[in-house]
């Protein structure tokens, strides 16, 4: 099914070239049959073809004067009118009417319907009944014209070998035994066994039939494929071309003017053949093209894993749990969480004699479900967002601590929501461009948001430290727990090292991307580091240092006083779900 889709795509594009006015080697037999030149043979206009295809002529520039001279053999009166400033009954500027092909396709020019005052479009041109009774097939051409159209006709409905015919035409110049000097070689035998072996040339080279022939761009792989999920290829690979990893013999490089990674193949007689051998490798063989000491693309010398589920509160990450730091940290976190849950489920519910974890859990679930499907839903949402996320109650007790809490807590909320959208987009909507903007560190919006939220956390931690030392002996507000300085210290280390990491990443990139200045803190830090291969070698150590600090924070969190920041929104919402508890609070 997929193969049929790709073949159809190539055929439609080839037909489109013939109809869209582009200069193409393909002719639509149906449109040619209904054109003004349908009674003429190919040699009437192409008498000088000789032996072809001739690689020396495929890049010959279009010369309007040569075409005009050819048209003048039959339409000399038209060119005479143009020279006098008139064409099609209108006054014109002769200098603007020197290229006949700019308006008239010599192979598909339709008869002017003077009585209707219109020129039939392509759909009408295919309607046999406009001129005669309907036919099942077109009339036979002259033998010499059939020989031409054996290669030059666009695919017809039901033609099974059209894709092969296109490729055979390409092989007339690009086959190893026929290729002239300077023409890249494409050897079909080397194509076998590769993912695209059964596709025709025009699937990936849709303008291969147009001319001039050189300088055409290859179709973006994303026209048919989607990007790898971040768990396989991290966010840093969003702008990396597929060939840099998947093309046999490709050597990654860096275009400093465009600030993008590129690829190239070593020159040689078989360069064209190598350029078609896309492979899917197992393991890290492809990764080592860039991730090695001395690389030219600004990549870390170390192979680093994708961001795991432990990174989700701060980054657009994955649900992976593959590295040792994440596994150990999550085990300790779960142990602490289970201890907290067992404590919460101990004792009995207020106003009841029921005891035990089961009774308390059942009562809590009943209260939550009862609140969700009742008029108390508004109160639950209000408690969750205003009291839990925005710290409304804390602002009333201590505005200073309320501000500090918001500066530390809300950036994580923003980043976590950002990461959820990124995870959903890259896994469920990989064809949507916005999905990849959310994980692209060099995109201006992403760079700015993450640096801004990082600065907010640093400001909050710094304010907490300053407040602590300024009011060391002063009594704090009642009913507020003392800050957890171990957690604060870990958080400070994580954010500071995160900025250093981003600064090193920008510094080791051969040329700064468009979005680099928007990461305003990391951008300034990158200026301090300068450039040098040591950055690529040292980056991996910094990265693991950042991960280890994060793992330590996650493991410590259930045992710290900072745990209440995460639990508060949930507990307040559950409290609001309990009508009696909610009414008591309102009083």
From TrEMBL:
The chain crosses the membrane at residues 324-345, 402-425, 445-465, 485-501, 538-556. Its main location: membrane. It is found in: Cell membrane. Pfam families: Cytochrome_C7, Nitrate_red_gam. Residues 430-570 form the NarG-like domain. Coiled coil: none annotated. One of its GO terms (molecular function) is oxidoreductase activity. This is Uncharacterized protein. GO terms for cellular component: plasma membrane.
């Amino acid at each position: 099914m997929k193969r049929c889709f790709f073949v159809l795509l190539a055929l439609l594009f080839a037909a489109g070239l013939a109809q869209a006015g582009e200069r193409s080697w393909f002719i639509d037999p149906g449109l040619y049959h209904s054109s003004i030149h349908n009674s003429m043979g190919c040699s009437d206009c192409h008498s000088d073809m000789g032996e072809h295809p001739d690689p020396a002529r495929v890049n010959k520039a279009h010369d309007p004067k040569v075409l005009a001279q050819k048209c003048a053999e039959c339409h000399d009166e038209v060119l005479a009118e143009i020279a006098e400033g008139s064409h099609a009954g209108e006054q014109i500027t002769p200098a603007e009417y020197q290229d006949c092909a700019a308006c008239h396709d010599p192979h598909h020019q339709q008869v002017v319907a003077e009585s209707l005052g219109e020129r039939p479009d392509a759909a009408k041109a295919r309607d046999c009944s406009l001129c005669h009774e309907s036919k099942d097939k077109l009339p036979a051409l002259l033998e010499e014209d059939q020989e031409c159209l054996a290669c030059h006709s666009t695919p017809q409905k039901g033609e099974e070998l059209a894709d092969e015919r296109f490729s055979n035409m390409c092989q007339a110049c690009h086959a190893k035994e026929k290729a002239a000097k300077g023409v890249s070689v494409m050897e079909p035998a080397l194509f076998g066994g590769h993912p695209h072996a059964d596709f025709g040339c025009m699937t990936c080279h849709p303008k291969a039939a147009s001319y001039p022939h050189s300088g055409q761009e290859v179709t973006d792989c994303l026209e048919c494929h989607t990007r790898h999920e971040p768990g396989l290829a991290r966010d840093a690979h969003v702008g990396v071309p597929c060939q840099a990893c998947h093309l046999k013999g490709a050597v990654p490089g860096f275009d400093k003017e465009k600030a993008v990674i590129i690829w190239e193949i070593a020159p040689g007689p078989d360069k064209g053949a190598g350029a078609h051998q896309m492979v899917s490798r197992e393991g890290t063989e492809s990764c080592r093209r860039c991730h090695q000491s001395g690389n030219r693309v600004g990549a870390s010398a170390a192979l680093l894993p994708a961001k795991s589920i432990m990174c989700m509160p701060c980054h657009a990450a994955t649900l992976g749990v593959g590295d040792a730091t994440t596994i150990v940290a999550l085990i300790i976190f779960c142990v602490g969480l289970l201890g907290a849950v067992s404590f919460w489920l101990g004792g009995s519910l207020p106003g009841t004699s029921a005891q035990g974890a089961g009774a308390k859990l059942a009562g809590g679930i009943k209260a939550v479900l009862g609140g969700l499907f009742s008029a108390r839903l508004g109160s639950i949402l209000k408690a969750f967002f205003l009291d839990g996320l925005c710290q409304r109650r804390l602002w009333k007790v201590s505005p200073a601590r309320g501000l500090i809490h918001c500066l530390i807590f809300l950036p994580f909320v923003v980043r976590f929501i950002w990461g959820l959208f990124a995870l959903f987009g890259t896994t469920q909507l990989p064809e949507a461009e916005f999905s990849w903007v959310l994980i692209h560190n060099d995109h201006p919006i992403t760079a700015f948001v993450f640096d801004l939220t990082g600065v907010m956390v640093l400001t909050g931690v710094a304010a907490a430290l300053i407040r602590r030392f300024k009011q060391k002996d002063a009594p704090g507000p009642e009913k507020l727990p003392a800050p957890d300085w171990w957690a604060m210290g870990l958080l400070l280390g994580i954010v500071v090292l995160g900025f250093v990491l981003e600064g090193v990443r920008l510094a080791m990139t051969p040329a700064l991307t468009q979005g680099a200045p928007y990461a305003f803190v990391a951008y300034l830090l990158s200026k301090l580091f300068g450039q040098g291969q040591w950055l690529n070698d040292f980056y991996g150590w910094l990265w693991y240092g950042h991960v280890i600090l994060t793992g330590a924070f996650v493991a410590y969190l259930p045992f710290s006083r900072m745990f209440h920041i995460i639990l508060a929104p949930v507990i307040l919402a559950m409290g609001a779900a309990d009508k009696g508890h909610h009414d008591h609070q309102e009083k």
